[in-house]
Design brief:
232 residues, alpha+beta, 5-stranded antiparallel sheet, 4-stranded antiparallel sheet, elongated
Length: 232
């Protein structure tokens, strides 16, 4: 544990940095961006979390390092995150989203309907917030559909309402793939990554030394700031 409190933990594929924070307040999260060398779009260069506690140390303290995980990052209360639901967990509200795309999407939309949905600039078709049984029936119908001629060109996905899916959905319109959701009565921030930028700059992650330092240090108004600096 670092002398200022907190530290880095790695448990198989999962990693985290845990630090004390002021209770009963929302923590301010700020990001400094830089242009991606992959496509020129803004990407996170420095992520800062104001912990709401006074800084009583001197120089910044290194807590450890973290990779840019292709599955994303979650910022929130450690106890609340015990309730976090990810891929493979049943829907937490009995609802699900259905998406389809591909060369036959227009023909399928004429036959089955569905809205056009924009996800981080990409357009798919489908339905949001459907009861799980109805969503599963839609998926079965789409998978059974056969085009009038030629090879089938259709991809179908069912996304149950887990916390992971809800945070991804909350980030669809955010340029940094960030979105906040409520988990166990507490607001939690999720951050995703552009797939192309990740594959060009961060692929391999910890196994290939692609990790970036996490520190505690002084911030605005003399408060403690958790800072993650992503090299470009």
């Amino acid at each position: 544990m670092a002398s200022q409190g907190g530290g880095h933990v790695q448990d198989w594929l999962c990693e985290l940095v845990g630090v004390p924070a002021a209770p009963d307040m929302r923590l301010a999260v700020r990001a400094t961006t830089a242009a991606s060398p992959f496509d020129g779009e803004p990407t996170i260069a420095i992520l800062e979390v104001d912990l709401g506690l006074p800084w009583t140390g001197g120089e910044p303290v290194l807590l450890g390092d973290l990779p840019v995980d292709r599955c994303g990052m979650v910022l929130g209360d450690a106890i609340v995150l015990d309730s976090w639901t990810g891929d493979g967990h049943p829907s937490t509200d009995g609802l699900a989203d259905v998406f389809y795309w591909g060369g036959d999407a227009e023909a399928v939309q004429r036959e089955f309907g569905g809205d056009t949905i924009v996800q981080n600039g990409s357009r798919v078709r489908g339905w949001l917030d459907r009861p799980l049984e109805e969503a599963e029936a839609l998926v079965d119908s789409l998978r059974d559909w056969e085009p009038d001629a030629g090879d089938r060109r259709l991809m179908v996905a069912l996304e149950e309402h887990t916390d992971f899916h809800r945070f991804n959905r909350a980030a669809w319109d955010h340029p940094l793939y960030a979105g906040a959701v409520e988990v166990a009565g507490c607001r939690v921030l999720g951050i995703g990554w552009d797939p192309g930028d990740h594959s060009m700059r961060h692929r391999g992650e910890r196994a290939h030394g692609q990790v970036y330092p996490v520190t505690l240090g002084p911030g605005m108004a003399g408060r403690t700031v958790l800072r993650w600096t992503v090299a470009h």
